[in-house]
């Protein structure tokens, strides 16, 4: 019997029990939530909403990053019958406030880091869900009567700001998409156990209907796991795919294109470009298994379980699809829109029509009109959109939705995309930008006589370009664009513009600008410009992250004094810029930059490849661990007690403390770890990984080519002995510490405690050197107890040149463990830890 509402779908999570539903990053750690935990959290939150008088039909604004908390908030809305109104995390507070007024939102469920609305409405932060609902019953919430016609959510399509337009989606719209999938998937479930669990890496926001479909509704049909990515850097995405054993990557075309470039870059850096091109040419038309074997090195890099891309949100270039197909991967494209609750047509994963949008989705009627426009009719087509507090029909009187997109129906029954007839500009990131919104922002600027915004085509997608008519003695065009961009969301902002060379635009008889002619002239002129005109996107990023007006992020603005950016803000800014510009920045140079202008110059510098730091997992394997412990107890432990048996104080502070923990210690010699291991209880000693100077490890791993061969052998041997005997990992000082910290998080996830020397160098005078602020980041984002330890007496032995000491001359003091809240300033944490260690 068909489901009557999505409340039945949510409650169906109970059948999956302990299967992992979602994995996402929390700080530097990956955490998992089972289906049972998501369902229990959703029921608790539903009871909290009910206690706050939220009832069926009430609107709730849902604003934040894709996360388990987002899913629980969405499911809680479903269970109480409320109408969810999701917004992109990058939406402006101005847009969120307008949407809240339009739908008369009763409550805001959001991330704590987002700005407040004006006027404010009651809010519950994602970060407080667990604490707030801890005492609520996790049993099934008694949902009100719901039907397929009841409104599930209102999605305000990306790009609408001045007059938001929201598509009203019902329970039946979503169920009409889920049910055909469920029917088709049932045929293959008996094979799923051989690849269980299927893992989907989803980089699409859950505020978009396609992101919801692939991040919430489809994976449970396969008992699958959804992994949320926290970075779009190609190298980090590849590492996530491999580490998390991802099966399918769900992304917009731009991400898939960037991964292609990363693979090509890696092939070139390894000196295999010529062979790769030869193999690529020979692979055409060969069997899938032969292609898979030919490019097995790339498959090993991405992980043996990875086999498919799902592309949505924009058009994927043919050459990108060909590239991944030729390497032995499936590229699954479809076609849909918010108004059709995601899908209109889809390629079958095992019967893909190259270059097509796939076959029409079951339950839908689709026809191509005489002018080539795609018309759609069916239950998954939304009935109305909301604007200005009123509902307006989406489809025509006979039920057909005019998509505004052009296609051809092939003889094989597949749709082949031909272009867009609507004015909406769809960027390569899959976001829709409405020219009217941009034009309205431009016309509000002094000195602008008239303007139009056109889409400059880029490989099947587009980017907005402003065409300006300025008054005599009017404002500078760059200033006009910058001022207009202040009122727009980041994805709407104009990076290119063109000053119209004539007194007026060419116009139609009704005095509307003749857009085809304008676009022709703009394209002809821009083609001759080596460097197109454009605004400063860096200032956009800095201002938004600092929570300051655009004007505050002038090039001479000081990051600390003028913008009040903390060290944590700097780390987030650096990650954002690396994602945006697809570069690897030097942490040392970035930390030395004091102004916005200095960061801009840093982005313009040629980026020299940093030392490659390898984060090996083999030292943690059980066989290596057993060998390491045997060697330790046979050789290292006796040697430590023969040379300088330590006197341990404060061991009781570790009694009953759960592992893993973060151990910090002063740094006296390169052999400090011997006395720390001797002082720790066996349960910590046996599962301890140590952060070591990353640059020194890199030099050991790759000695200079002009070094004496025997010396090179000794250096390489030292590298493997350091990893094997002491389980060390790189902790770079120059560049790459974020990846090092992420690896530390991975170690903690696997049950290993971490040892770090926060001074970053051995002492020169026996006193503590200032702690690096990175230890503060590590302490907050690992979210485990921090155990301070201090070694005394060893420096005096070192100064005296003694190799042995009487028992107890070397003292190891263990301090009380301490935890820090995630919102604590990393610099403050570093200073507090330094104080605690000094007081031991």
Identify the strand order in the major beta sheet. 2-1-10-9-11-12-13-14-15
Helix vs. strand class: alpha/beta
Main sheet record: 9 strands, mixed
CATH fold call of the domain at 618-839: Glycerol-3-phosphate (1)-acyltransferase
Task: Describe the secondary-structure layout.
Elements: H1 6-11, E1 20-26, E2 29-34, H2 35-51, E3 59-63, H3 68-80, E4 83-87, H4 93-103, E5 107-110, E6 123-125, H5 129-132, E7 151-156, E8 165-170, H6 171-186, H7 189-192, E9 199-202, H8 209-217, E10 225-228, H9 234-243, E11 248-251, H10 253-269, H11 273-282, H12 288-294, H13 296-302, E12 308-311, H14 318-326, E13 330-335, E14 345-346, E15 359-360, E16 364-368, E17 373-378, E18 384-387, E19 390-393, E20 401-409, E21 415-420, E22 425-426, E23 432-433, H15 435-443, E24 448-458, E25 461-470, H16 477-485, E26 496-499, H17 515-526, H18 537-546, H19 567-581, H20 587-592, H21 596-604, H22 622-644, E27 647-649, E28 662-665, H23 672-679, H24 682-685, E29 688-693, H25 694-701, H26 709-726, E30 728-731, H27 737-749, E31 753-756, H28 774-782, E32 786-792, H29 794-800, E33 811-814, H30 826-839
Parallel strand pairs: 1-10, 3-4, 3-5, 5-6, 9-10, 9-11, 11-12, 12-13, 25-26, 27-33, 28-31, 28-32, 29-30, 29-31
Antiparallel strand pairs: 1-2, 7-8, 8-18, 13-14, 14-15, 16-17, 17-20, 18-19, 20-21, 22-23, 24-25, 32-33
């Amino acid at each position: 019997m068909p489901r009557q509402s999505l409340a039945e779908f949510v409650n169906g999570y109970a059948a999956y029990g302990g299967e992992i539903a979602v994995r996402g990053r929390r700080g530097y750690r990956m955490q998992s939530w089972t289906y049972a935990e998501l369902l229990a959290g959703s029921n608790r939150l539903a009871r909290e909403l009910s206690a706050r008088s939220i009832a069926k039909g009430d609107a709730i604004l849902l604003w934040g990053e894709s996360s388990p908390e987002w899913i629980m908030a969405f499911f809680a809305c479903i269970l109480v019958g409320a109408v969810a109104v999701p917004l992109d995390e990058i939406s402006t507070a101005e847009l969120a406030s307008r949407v809240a007024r339009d739908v008369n939102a009763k409550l805001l469920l959001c991330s704590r880091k987002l700005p407040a609305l004006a006027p404010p409405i009651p809010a519950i932060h994602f970060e407080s869900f667990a604490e707030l609902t801890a005492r609520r019953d996790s049993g099934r919430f008694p949902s009100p009567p719901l039907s397929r016609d009841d409104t599930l959510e209102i999605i305000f399509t990306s790009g609408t700001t001045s007059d938001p337009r929201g598509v009203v989606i019902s329970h039946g719209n979503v169920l009409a998409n889920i049910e055909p999938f469920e029917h088709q998937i049932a045929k293959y479930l008996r094979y799923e156990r051989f690849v269980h669990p299927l893992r989907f890496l989803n980089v699409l926001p859950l505020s978009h209907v396609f992101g919801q479909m692939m991040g919430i509704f489809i994976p449970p049909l396969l008992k699958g796991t959804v992994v949320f990515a926290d970075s779009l850097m190609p190298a980090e995405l590849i590492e996530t795919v491999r580490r998390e054993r991802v099966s399918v990557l769900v992304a917009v075309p731009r991400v898939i294109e960037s991964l292609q470039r990363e693979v090509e870059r890696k092939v070139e850096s390894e000196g295999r470009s010529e062979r790769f091109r030869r193999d690529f040419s020979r692979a055409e038309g060969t069997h899938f298994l032969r292609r898979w074997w030919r490019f097995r090195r790339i498959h090993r890099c991405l992980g043996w379980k990875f086999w498919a891309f799902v592309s949505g949100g924009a058009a994927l270039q043919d050459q990108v699809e060909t590239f991944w197909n030729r390497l032995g991967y499936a590229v699954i494209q479809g076609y849909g829109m918010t108004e059709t609750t995601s899908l209109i047509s889809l390629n079958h994963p095992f019967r893909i029509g190259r270059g097509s949008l796939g076959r029409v989705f079951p339950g839908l009627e689709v026809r191509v009109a005489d002018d080539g426009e795609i018309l759609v009719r069916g239950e998954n087509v939304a009935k109305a959109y909301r604007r200005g507090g009123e509902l307006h029909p989406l489809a025509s009187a006979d039920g057909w939705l005019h998509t505004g997109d052009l296609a051809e129906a092939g003889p094989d029954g597949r749709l082949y995309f031909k272009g867009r007839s609507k004015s909406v500009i769809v960027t390569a990131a899959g976001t829709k930008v409405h020219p009217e919104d941009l034009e309205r922002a431009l016309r509000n600027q002094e000195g602008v006589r008239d303007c139009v915004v056109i889409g400059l085509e880029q490989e099947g997608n587009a980017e907005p370009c402003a065409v300006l008519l300025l008054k005599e003695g009017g404002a500078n065009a760059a200033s006009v664009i910058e001022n207009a961009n202040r009122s727009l969301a980041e994805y709407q902002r104009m990076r290119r513009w063109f000053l119209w060379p004539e007194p007026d635009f060419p116009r139609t008889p009704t005095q509307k600008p003749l857009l085809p002619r304008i676009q022709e002239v703009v394209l002809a002129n821009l083609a001759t410009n080596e460097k197109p005109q454009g605004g400063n996107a860096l200032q956009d990023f800095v201002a938004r992250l600092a929570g300051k007006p655009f004007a505050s992020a002038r090039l001479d603005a000081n990051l600390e004094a003028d913008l009040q950016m903390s060290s944590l803000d700097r780390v987030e800014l650096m990650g954002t810029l690396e994602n945006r510009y697809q570069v690897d920045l030097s942490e040392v140079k970035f930390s030395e930059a004091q102004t916005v202008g200095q960061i801009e110059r840093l982005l313009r510098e040629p980026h020299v490849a940093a030392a490659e730091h390898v984060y090996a997992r083999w030292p943690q394997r059980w066989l290596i661990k057993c060998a390491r412990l045997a060697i330790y107890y046979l050789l290292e432990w006796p040697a430590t007690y023969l040379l300088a048996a330590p006197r341990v104080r404060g061991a009781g502070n570790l009694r009953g403390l759960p592992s893993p923990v973060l151990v910090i210690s002063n740094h006296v010699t390169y052999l400090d770890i011997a006395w720390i291991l001797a002082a720790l209880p066996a349960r910590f000693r046996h599962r301890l990984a140590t952060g070591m100077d990353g640059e020194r490890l890199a030099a050991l791993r790759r000695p200079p080519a002009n070094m004496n061969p025997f010396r090179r052998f000794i250096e390489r041997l030292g590298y493997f002995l350091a990893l094997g005997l002491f389980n060390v990992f790189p902790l770079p000082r120059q560049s790459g510490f974020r990846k090092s910290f992420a690896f530390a998080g991975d170690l903690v996830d696997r049950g290993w405690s971490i040892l770090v020397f926060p001074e970053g160098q051995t002492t020169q005078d026996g006193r503590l050197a200032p702690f690096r602020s990175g230890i503060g980041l590590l302490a907050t984002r690992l979210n485990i107890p921090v155990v301070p330890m201090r070694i005394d007496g060893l420096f005096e032995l070192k100064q005296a040149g003694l190799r042995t000491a009487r028992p107890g001359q070397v003292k190891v003091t263990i301090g009380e463990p301490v935890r820090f809240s995630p919102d604590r300033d990393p610099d403050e944490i570093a200073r507090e830890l330094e104080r605690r260690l000094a007081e031991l």
